[in-house]
C-alpha cells in the first residue's frame, strides 16, 4: 500500500467552524443589537454578519476561548485519523491559526491551545504546523501528497500541485476541478483514500 503524507486543516476540517460561526455569531449580533443580514457564503465572521472592524474585534474578545477550547471535534475524526496512521500514513496538521486575537497574558500561546484541544479529542498526528499564511508553499516544502482543506482560496491554490479533499461548507461551493474531491464526513475521507490513493505499490 502506498504510504502518504496527508495534510489536515484544523478549523473546518477537524471541527465544524461554519456551524460554530453561525451559532456564536447570531448570538453575538442579537446581544449587540446588530442586524445587517447574514451571508452564509462568507468565510470570515465580518463577511458573514457584516461586522465592522470594531465589532469583529469585540466578537473575538468574547468568543476566542470558546473556539480554542470548547468547539467539538467532527464525528469520527479521531477514529479515522487513528486508522490512517495505523495504515502507515503520516498525518500533518496544517493550520493558519495564529495569535491575532490572543491578548495580554495569553499572547503567543496559540501552540499551547491547539495542542491541548488535539489532546482533549485524542487527535493523533505526526507533525503540527500552525500560523501558516501560505499553505500552498508549505505543502510543497514539507512534501505533502494530499491535503484536506475547507477554505476555497486554499483549495484552489493547493489543488494546482497536489490532490485536495474539500470538506463541504457553504463558503466553498465553487471549488471544483480534476484535483478536487468534495467530502462530507471523515469516514468518506477514509473510503476515498482507500479507493483513489492507497493503491498497491509495485516493487
TrEMBL record:
It comes from the Bacteria. PANTHER family: NUCLEOTIDASE YQFW-RELATED. Belongs to the 5'(3')-deoxyribonucleotidase family. The keyword Hydrolase applies. The keyword Methyltransferase does not apply. Pfam families: NT5C (PF06941). The lineage of its organism: Bacteria, Bacillati, Bacillota, Bacilli, Candidatus Onthousia. One of its GO terms (biological process) is deoxyribonucleotide catabolic process. This is Nucleotidase. The active site is at 9 (nucleophile), 11 (proton donor). InterPro entries: 5'(3')-deoxyribonucleotidase, 5_3-deoxyribonucleotidase-like, HAD-like_sf, HAD_sf, Nucleotidase_putative. Gene3D superfamilies: HAD superfamily/HAD-like. Keywords: Hydrolase. Its EC number is 3.1.3.-. GO terms for molecular function: 5'-nucleotidase activity.
Amino acid at each position: 500500500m502506498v504510504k502518504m503524507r496527508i495534510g489536515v486543516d484544523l478549523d473546518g476540517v477537524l471541527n465544524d467552524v461554519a456551524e460554530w460561526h453561525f451559532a456564536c455569531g447570531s448570538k453575538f449580533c442579537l446581544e449587540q443589537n446588530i442586524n445587517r443580514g447574514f451571508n452564509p457564503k462568507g468565510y470570515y465572521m465580518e463577511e458573514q454578519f457584516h461586522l465592522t472592524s470594531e465589532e469583529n474585534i469585540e466578537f473575538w474578545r468574547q468568543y476566542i476561548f470558546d473556539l480554542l477550547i470548547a468547539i467539538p471535534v467532527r464525528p469520527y475524526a479521531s477514529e479515522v485519523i487513528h486508522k490512517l496512521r495505523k495504515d502507515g500514513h503520516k498525518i500533518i496538521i496544517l493550520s493558519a491559526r495564529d495569535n491575532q486575537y490572543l491578548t495580554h497574558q495569553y499572547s503567543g500561546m496559540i501552540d499551547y491551545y491547539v495542542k491541548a484541544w488535539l489532546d482533549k479529542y485524542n487527535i493523533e498526528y505526526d507533525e503540527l504546523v500552525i500560523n501558516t499564511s501560505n499553505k500552498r508553499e508549505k505543502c510543497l516544502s514539507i512534501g505533502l501528497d494530499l491535503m484536506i482543506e475547507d477554505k476555497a482560496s486554499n483549495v484552489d491554490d493547493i489543488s494546482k500541485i497536489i490532490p485536495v479533499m474539500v470538506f463541504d461548507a457553504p463558503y466553498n461551493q465553487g471549488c471544483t476541478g480534476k484535483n478536487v474531491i468534495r467530502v462530507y464526513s471523515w469516514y468518506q475521507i477514509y473510503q476515498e483514500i482507500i479507493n483513489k490513493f492507497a493503491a498497491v505499490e509495485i516493487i
